[in-house]
Design brief:
single chain, mainly beta, Porin, about 10% helix, about 35% strand
C-alpha cells in the first residue's frame, strides 16, 4: 500500500503540441495550452475546471499565465509569466543546453524557487520527456505518450506526471515542456 503523497497526473487530452487541455485526474488542477491564431504565440491558461465540462459551453476570456512567443520561422522567441509581471526572457536563455556539445533535447532552467531543473528526451525507458533536479537527478516530472498498440478508452493515454513536492512550479514545468516539445518538433 502506497502511503506517500499522490503525484499530480494530468491527462493531455489531445496529445497535440499547440492545442490541448491538461486535466488532473483527481480534479485538483486544470490547464490549457492554446495557440493564438493571430500570431505565433502559445498561451498557457489556468482553467479552473475540467475541459470536458467547459470545452464548448463557456466563452473563453481568461488571461494567460504564461506566454510562449515563438518567432514566425518557428525558432525560439521569448517566454513570460504573469507571476513575474510578464517580463519577457529569451527562450534560449531560459532553457539552456546542458552541455556545449550536447544535443538540443537536453536543457535546463532555473525555476522560480531558485532550483535548477533539467529536461531530457527519452532518457528513461517509457518516458518521452523526463524532468529532474539536483546532482542525484531526483525525478520531478515526466511526460508519457500512449503507445500506438495500447488501447485507450475515453482517455487520450498521454500524461504529464508532476510529483507533489514540485507542484508549486507546475506552470513552469508545463511551459518548459511545451518549449522542449517545440524544439523536438522543429529540430531546433
Amino acid at each position: 500500500m502506497y502511503n506517500g503523497p499522490l503525484p499530480f497526473v494530468f491527462e493531455d487530452r489531445t496529445g497535440q503540441l499547440y492545442g490541448s487541455d491538461f486535466d488532473e485526474m483527481y480534479d485538483r488542477m486544470f490547464y490549457r495550452v492554446a495557440r493564438d491564431p493571430q500570431r505565433t504565440a502559445t498561451m498557457v491558461y489556468n482553467m479552473g475546471r475540467r475541459a470536458s465540462r467547459h470545452r464548448d459551453s463557456l466563452p473563453f476570456n481568461s488571461r494567460p499565465i504564461a506566454i510562449l512567443d515563438f518567432k514566425p520561422d518557428q525558432s525560439l522567441g521569448n517566454i513570460c509569466y504573469a507571476s513575474n509581471g510578464n517580463v519577457a526572457v529569451p527562450m534560449n536563455r531560459y532553457l539552456r543546453r546542458t552541455s556545449m556539445f550536447g544535443g538540443s533535447l537536453s536543457r535546463k532552467f532555473t525555476g522560480s524557487d531558485g532550483r535548477e531543473y533539467k529536461w531530457s528526451h527519452r532518457s528513461i525507458q517509457g518516458q518521452e520527456w523526463t524532468c529532474t533536479t539536483g546532482p542525484e537527478n531526483f525525478l520531478v516530472a515526466h511526460f508519457d505518450l500512449k503507445a500506438a498498440d495500447v488501447p485507450a478508452y475515453d482517455v487520450s493515454g498521454n500524461t504529464l506526471t508532476i510529483f507533489e513536492q514540485f507542484i508549486h512550479i507546475s506552470v513552469e514545468i508545463l511551459a518548459s515542456l511545451t518549449i522542449m516539445r517545440h524544439i523536438a518538433q522543429h529540430n531546433l
